[in-house]
């Protein structure tokens, strides 16, 4: 319960002024520009776009600056801004098969058509602090380019298994999916709704859920069939034109897991799939999403519910959103004076009654 | 010219302008002198488009997240050609220029604007893609097999 409290305005103004100064930091240090954040903290920008659920690198960079680098605060700012915009429509599903890949690796096939392309990865770095980045005027090394690339799209690894019939089929379905931004989360949730929630869910939460499946809480034996990161066009039908145009281009990370599956009451032995798709370069999140997606599919595949948290759609989806979580968590710091007064009175009364009950007879005997 | 090929051309130029960096589109339009009397049918408006993906890349459609898009529409005063502009991001100016170029491409200035705005944007995109593709190819793993037991 809340009660109207007035009188904090001057304190709030002063706090906000101080916040602005702290955000700026020492005035003798150059101020960060939005383009510096966009270009040099691009993975932070990617995360804010993915979980803010709005692809706009400049806005995400602004949000990071305004939030002093607090990612959940930045995601909150993006979510709030998004609600002020009209929606022009929905795109055709993006064609990740036509992706122009910066990175494309498979943990299941060494010699896949198109090859293993490492891209700009942290893998194989030694995780030693590079003090050269602390020094000014670092010289960038010479660019090593490969041969000219044939612009043919790289085939999805799952296509090979699909052709042999070893992989659970994924029938195309164009039913307009439910949309979490338009209707409250409601159960039972179908797979498209789960995928939307996971795509905008907190990276740390989705990672932990995925990790729990690897440690044995609903283990699903995943192989990274393919992980690809690159650019895809976004196409939408424009009613006034009568045809579709490419409205833009976005970078996405996609992970397809191939999971061992010995068959169930309803399905023959075959490989099954988990799927992760995330805005920006964000492979940790994409892999995590694929593992959690697969764990949540137990019911549709006729697997046993072993009672693991990652199998519980209601648990996973209700707690994956960090803006929702932070809002509810942090509201308890706001004035609850009246609630607390009533609790205080209750405890005092109970204590007095308990004291009376325990000490009463003795007093009477005296 | 058939309606179909006109539509294809229009689709290509609108897609090119939508994906181009806003500052490049604006700069090329300014240097091409895209400045004609027109009335604004739809003032530049920032909005979003919900981007969809598919489960397993091929299956059920789902909502991935939104992206920002700005759109505008204009009508040229002297020939009443209507142009629509859609650009990724939040630039009012780029959306108006895209609409103006779209309208002017329906007039006898079409081929001049193709040469001064659309084709340069396409070439810049191709060059950028080529450079990134070459860079990616440089990180392609060339496995070699160790011969054992000889």
Question: What are its keywords?
Answer:
heterodimer, A: 366 residues, alpha+beta, 3 domains, B: 150 residues, 3-stranded antiparallel β-sheet, 3 strands, elongated
Task: Please tell me about this protein's structure.
The complex is a heterodimer of chains A (366) and B (150). Chain A has 366 residues and is of the alpha+beta class. Chain A is 39% helix and 15% strand. Chain A folds into three domains: 9-82; 96-119 and 152-171 and 178-326, no CATH class; 335-365. Chain A has helices spanning 9-24, 34-40, 42-52, 57-66, 71-82, 157-163, 191-199, 203-214, 283-296, 313-319, 322-330, 337-365; strands at residues 54-55, 87-90, 100-105, 222-238, 243-259, 272-279. In chain A, strands 3-4-5-6 form a four-stranded antiparallel beta sheet. The two termini of chain A are 45 Å apart. By secondary structure, chain B is of the alpha+beta class. Chain B has one domain (3-137). Chain B contains four helices and three strands. Chain B has helices spanning 3-19, 22-31, 92-104, 110-137; strands at 38-54, 61-76, 82-88. A three-stranded antiparallel beta sheet of chain B has the order 1-2-3. In chain B, a hairpin with a 5-residue loop joins strand 2 (61-76) and strand 3 (82-88). Classes of the chains: A alpha+beta (366), B alpha+beta (150). The interface between A and B is large, with 85 and 53 residues. Strand 1 of chain A pairs parallel with strand 2 of chain B.
Short description:
The complex is a heterodimer of chains A (366) and B (150). Chain A is of the alpha+beta class and 366 residues long.
């Amino acid at each position: 319960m809340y009660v109207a409290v007035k009188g904090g305005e001057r304190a709030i103004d002063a706090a906000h002024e101080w916040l602005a100064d702290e955000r700026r930091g020492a005035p003798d240090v150059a101020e960060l520009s939005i383009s510096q954040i966009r270009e040099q903290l691009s993975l932070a920008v990617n995360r804010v776009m993915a979980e803010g659920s709005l692809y706009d690198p400049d806005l995400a960079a602004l949000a990071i600056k305004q939030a002093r680098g607090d990612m959940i605060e930045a995601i909150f700012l993006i979510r709030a801004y998004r609600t002020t915009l009209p929606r022009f429509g929905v795109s055709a599903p993006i064609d990740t098969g036509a992706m122009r890949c910066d990175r494309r690796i498979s943990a299941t096939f060494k010699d896949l058509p198109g090859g293993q392309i490492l891209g700009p990865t942290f893998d194989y770095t030694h995780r030693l602090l590079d003090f050269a980045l602390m020094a000014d005027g670092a010289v960038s090394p010479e660019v090593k380019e490969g041969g000219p690339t044939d612009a043919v799209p790289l085939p999805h690894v799952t296509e090979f298994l699909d052709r042999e019939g070893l992989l659970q089929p994924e029938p195309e379905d164009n039913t307009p999916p439910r949309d979490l931004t338009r209707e409250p989360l409601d159960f039972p949730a179908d797979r498209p709704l789960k995928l939307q929630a996971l795509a905008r869910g907190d990276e740390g939460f989705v990672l932990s859920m995925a990790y729990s499946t690897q440690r044995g809480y609903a283990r699903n034996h995943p192989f990274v069939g393919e992980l690809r990161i690159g650019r895809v066009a976004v196409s939408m039908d424009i009613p006034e034109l009568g045809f579709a145009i490419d409205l833009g281009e976005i970078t996405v990370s996609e992970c397809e897991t191939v999971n061992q599956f010995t068959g169930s009451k309803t399905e023959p032995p075959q490989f099954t799939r988990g799927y992760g798709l995330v805005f920006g370069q964000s492979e940790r999140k994409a892999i995590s999403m694929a593992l959690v997606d697969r764990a949540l599919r137990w019911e549709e595949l006729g697997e046993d519910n072993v009672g693991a948290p990652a199998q519980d759609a209601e648990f996973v989806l209700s707690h994956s959103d960090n803006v929702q979580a932070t809002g509810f968590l942090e509201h308890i710091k706001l004035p609850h004076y009246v609630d607390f007064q009533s609790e205080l009175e209750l405890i005092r009364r109970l204590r007095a009654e308990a004291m009376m009950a325990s000490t009463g007879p003795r007093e009477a005997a005296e | 010219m058939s309606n179909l090929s006109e539509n294809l051309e229009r689709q290509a130029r609108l897609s090119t302008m939508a994906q181009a960096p806003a500052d490049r589109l604006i700069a090329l339009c300014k240097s091409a002198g895209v400045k004609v009397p027109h009335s604004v049918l739809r003032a530049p408006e920032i909005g979003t488009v919900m981007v969809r993906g598919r489960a397993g890349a091929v299956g059920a459609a789902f909502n991935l997240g939104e992206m920002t898009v700005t759109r505008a529409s204009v009508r040229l005063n002297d020939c009443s050609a209507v142009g629509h502009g859609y650009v990724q991001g939040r630039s009012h100016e780029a959306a108006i220029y895209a609409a103006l170029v779209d309208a002017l491409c329906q007039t006898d200035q079409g081929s001049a604007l193709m040469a001064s705005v659309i084709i340069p944007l396409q070439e810049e995109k191709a060059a950028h893609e080529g450079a990134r593709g070459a860079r990616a190819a440089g990180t392609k793993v060339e496995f070699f097999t160790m011969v054992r037991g000889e």
